[in-house]
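Run log, item B.
One chain of 638 residues. Sequence copied directly from the ordering sheet:
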Amino acid sequence: MIKGVVFLFVALLVFPLVSAEIFVSQPEEVYNIGEWFSLDLRVKPVSNTQEFLTADISCRGSDTVNIYRNFFNINAGEERVVNIAAVLSGNLLGNIKGENCFLTAKYGSDSANSQSFAISNLLEIDLDLDKAKHFPEEKVEIKGTAVRESGNSVEGFIEAKSTSLGIELSDNVKNGAYSLNFTLSKNVPSGEHEININIYEKDNQNQIINIGNITLKIEVLPVLSKLDIFLSEESAYPEQEYTFTVNAYDQADQLMNKEISLIIYDSKQNKFLQEVIRVGTERKINLTYSDIPGYWKIEAFADELIARKLFYLEEVRQIKTELQNDTLLVSNTGNIPYKGPIEIIIGENKEVRELKLDVAEIKRFKLYAPDGNYIITISDGSYFNELGSVALTGKAISVKDIGGLNINFKSPLVWLVLVIVLGLVVLFVRSRVKKLASSGYKDKPFAPASNINKVNMQPVSSGNKEETGVIALKINNFPKYSLNIIEDALSLTKRAGGKVYSDGNYKIIIFAQSMTKEKENDFIAVKIAKRIEDMFREQNRKFKDKIIYGLGVNSGEMIIENTQGEYKFTSVGNTIIKAKAMAQESNGDALLSDNIHRRVINKVRLEKLPDKDAWKIVKITDRGKHEDFLDRFKSRNK
């Protein structure tokens, strides 16, 4: 037993367990395919050794590849340093890649592993988009950087593709940077679009070795491009519901959901209806026999676009007959004057009378016949009505015209009655005004102060078409203190170069280059509207009785005629109508239309109102040359 232990001790001294020491230097954390791999090996044998020194790379779950093999004769105690360097090409590695990779060095019967590292073919992409929302025909710029997972810059290629936008772009990636741009088409569909971006590198054999991809989303805003009116029928009839639909289409001919201005004119070009409606919903109107037959016109306005359609209100020739004891009443219940003969049949005897009735006019006829009961029948050829039996008296059968109950506004008698009624109304109003004056309250009409230029809103004989900014101010009530602040607001308008005219409950304020000598009159209108809003809110904060008002701002073309300092205006399209619609929607905020919103978006921070095509002013970000004056004016009125 003792001899065996001594033999083992001697064997360990003569034949050591480790024949050589192998040390491997520290690798990088990540290597991308195509990059240089370089490590130092230090080999120090304990005895003279003649063997191959090898280096292999392997990743967990993959094959092993040899990247170095060389024969060395190293004496005992001698240290040899060997650099292991290779390009991690696709041909070298094959399918070897992953996170848990090692280099294994072997010399003779000894080996050593490096610390773990990763071999990757992934690229990391960073995007910088100029903005997320774009209008049709706008330029889209995409730029950014791309790096390998190892952290080194990419030298490769970029491809961008979007089926919905119809684009395919490519370019080089140099020193990790790339830049692409394209212009959206005129009829690009609105909504969200995806752009797939691929960046890759190739080796000298034109094979892709590293790749990365990312999906970019941009939103294309809808732009109203067309209005269309769909009629249920080409003809309409009195006392029958008539329906139509107005549709709005964007640049890609897709239906839009927005509000528009609508006007319906009768056959005499009088306004029958004027309102703001939401497109896409069926609109119903009820026409009566008092409405004038002929061609009626429907006009729809939005964002400087206009659509027109005609429909025909049919002529209806008809009468109504009834008996009141021995008196026959014949009424024109049609919508055109009634001319022609009617047969009045009393028993078996016929009497013919020529009728000439205006719309809604009534004629009365007294019926006579020898004492008795008679069946009364009326006919005009197409109309037949048996009125029943009536008791008549007289010497012979006859029909006497005893006049009518003609409520006809062409009648002098009707006009006389109207004049008398109107005079009574005037006397009543005067008495009310005197009563208010005696109580200490001096009423003032809602009109500009005397130093405000008054202008006419009417067709012009000549003039220039100009881009204008328009404010519609609607005052719904007049607290005692409000008149001065309203005049101050309109004075502010004059100082900025604007002109004012009255339109019912509205004050329409117009800014054009010919008056202000400035180009950006839409921006001036927005700033003045904001100042008026601030002035009214300050007054409402001070007083218990609040001014109830609305403010709307729009921009568009108007034809302006200046005759010796007196201005006349004619609106083109719905410039004024849209401003008034915004004021109607407003509840103390200055609301901007889509049209003017697009023009001042870079100078004003705005907030979109939910479910409305209107914007609320949050802040004026661009202080123009009028700003100091406006601030002084505001301070003076506090």
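Observations after the first pass:
- The first strand starts at residue 20 and ends at 24.
- The chain has a mean pLDDT of 83.
Flagged for discussion on Thursday.
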